[in-house]
Predict the 3D structure of the following.
Amino acid sequence: MEKKRCNIRDLARAANLSPGTVSRILNNRPGDMKIPEGTRRRVVTLAREMQYVPNIHARRLFSKRSGVIGLVIPSATRTGVPAFSGGHLPLILAGMEQHLDTGSRSLELIINNRDFIEKQSYLSLFRNGSLDGLLIWGVYEDELFWQELIDARFPYVFIDSHPRLKCWVNCVSNDYAYAAGKMTESILRLGHQRVVFLDDAANWSKTFYRRLGVGAAIENQRRAPESVRYCRAVDASEVERELGAALDEGFRFSAVSAADYRLAVWAREALCRRKLRVPEDVSIASCDTCQGEAAGWPELTRIEVDDRRVGAEAVLAIERIIDASDPFLISLGFEGTLVRGATVLSLNGVEMDA
């Protein structure tokens, strides 16, 4: 026979206190009541011995909050790969964990699939009291349904990408415009006259910001727009096709500025099949490499991003919005760190900036 669960009244009876006093002690809300330290320790010890479990539904009713933050990640059906197969999301979660471990809120994983959209779960989870806020990672630009969440004034923060909506949105992200601009401008400063910027073909907002960064780099170095050829690819075969097309059409590039580490690796493989050496014939750099990702190619010149910081700051942001009961605007972008490797050659004797 299953043992009866210990409730607040059982615990109060054992401690010879009122249920209200026990509740104040366990929830660390003494108010105006002066509770002796010995009494507090006795209640905590009894709660442990009697295996007291708080009634989460009563707590929600009292506080009008669930204590739960949802983390929405994209469905592999759309992205083509599981969300956790890359290095960024696990590191973002590690940053979230560092903060949540010391707080009172928990995290619930939610998949942004067809059912989630058709049932409008992004609204109903708030309306039924299941969630206090939403952290949303891996959003595509065309996911316009998120406008309903914003119009309803529910607490949310997009992480690393956001939809193209009719208003500004809350977002905590790596600064992709800075990364693409910094790396491309550094390559141009080293005397490279023709550069391929290789971007992801997915419909992310980060591709828009990268293009802004590349445009700024061209302008800052006073180069003609055609000095940088902008290409997009989703897999290794497309990278090979794009680089091959550039060479076959007479665009003799001496460097590839890749949007991320995966594209940089595919570019190296494609160039190798064309008998082109890195960096002697073509330099390669990555604008977005998560910490530890380049372990298999440590010589790569790259910008390393701090995903742990993104995760921690995203949790802090959503908690500030929840606690303020007001969806005020938060927009944070964190610059990565340039790691000077051996895969980018200087053609004019100038050294790469740190």
The mean pLDDT is 89. The chain has two domains: 68-174+308-334, 176-304.
